[in-house]
Amino acid sequence: MNVDYQEVEKFSQLSQEWWDKQGKFKTLHDINPLRLQFIQDHITVKDENLADIGCGGGILTEALASADANMTGIDLAEASLAVAQQHAQSKGLSIEYRCVAVEDFALEKPEHFHHIVCMEMLEHVPDPSSIINACAKLVRPDGYVFFSTLNRNIKSYLHAIIAAEYLLKMLPKGTHDFKKFIAPSELVRMCRQAHLETVTLKGLTYNPITQQYAFSDQVDVNYMIACRKTHS
């Protein structure tokens, strides 16, 4: 399978911290409103079938479910899924969580979903193109697929690893592997090969003084991409 088991184990060990907004996943909680806004700027999620690929503890999954999307979340860390399911139940949200590889899921449910989200996941797998291809298979023609990841350059190394993991301690040490970061041009190319047409590229910036994230036209560190599936 296209999986780094050390990555799965790492997130499994942190599973009980998913919903601590001041804990190890604080960054995800902080950027979640922007992720949700980026998605809703492109699509209406109400009553649509969406899948969250690499959903972890369900932070984005729940936000979309709360916006009345019909949500399915998949991940390979069973401990994280257990936390996600328990938290969703505590909030009265109906979300289907599955422990399955996205490639297998795509074979099971081809063109089943109106839209797909896959955030902060591509930089944690051996072959991101395989994930992208599977997402393209899962989504219906003209549906949107949303990705977010980290650019690969010296600035992203300094910001996402040195500053975030070691200096500011915003993330656990070892969260990211610089070699797995993906340049926007590479991601656009992989999407195009999967018949996903790029619609929007948007960056995220962090202000250490205000401790807030904001959208940016600069995609040199964190960035998100919205794609639409073509008919080819």
Explain the overall architecture.
- With 232 residues, the protein is of the alpha/beta class.
- It has one domain (5-150, 174-202, 224-229): Rossmann fold.
- Helices cover 38% and strands 22% of the residues.
- The protein has 8 helices and 8 strands.
- Strands 3-2-1-4-5-8-6-7 form an 8-stranded mixed β-sheet, with helices on both faces.
- Helix 3 links the parallel strand 1 and strand 2 (70-75).
- Helix 2 (26-40) packs across helix 3 (59-66), helix 5 runs parallel beside helix 6 (128-138) and helix 6 packs across helix 8.
- The longest helix has 15 residues, at 26-40.
- The mean pLDDT is 93.
**What are the low-pLDDT stretches, counting only 5+ consecutive residues below 50?**
none
In the CATH scheme, the class would be Alpha Beta
Q: What would you report as the Rg, rounded to the nearest angstrom?
A: 16 Å
Strand-and-helix sequence, N→C? HHEHEHEHEHEHHEEE
The number of helices is: 8
Give the terminus-to-terminus CA distance.
Answer: 27 Å
Biggest sheet overview: 8 strands, mixed
CATH architecture identity: 3-Layer(aba) Sandwich
CATH topology: Rossmann fold
CATH superfamily: Vaccinia Virus protein VP39
Tally of discrete structural domains: 1
Provide mean pLDDT, rounded: 93
Task: Give the beta-strand count.
Answer: 8
Beta-strand residue fraction: 15-25%
Strand order of the largest sheet: 3-2-1-4-5-8-6-7
Shape: globular
Helix share of residues? 25-40%
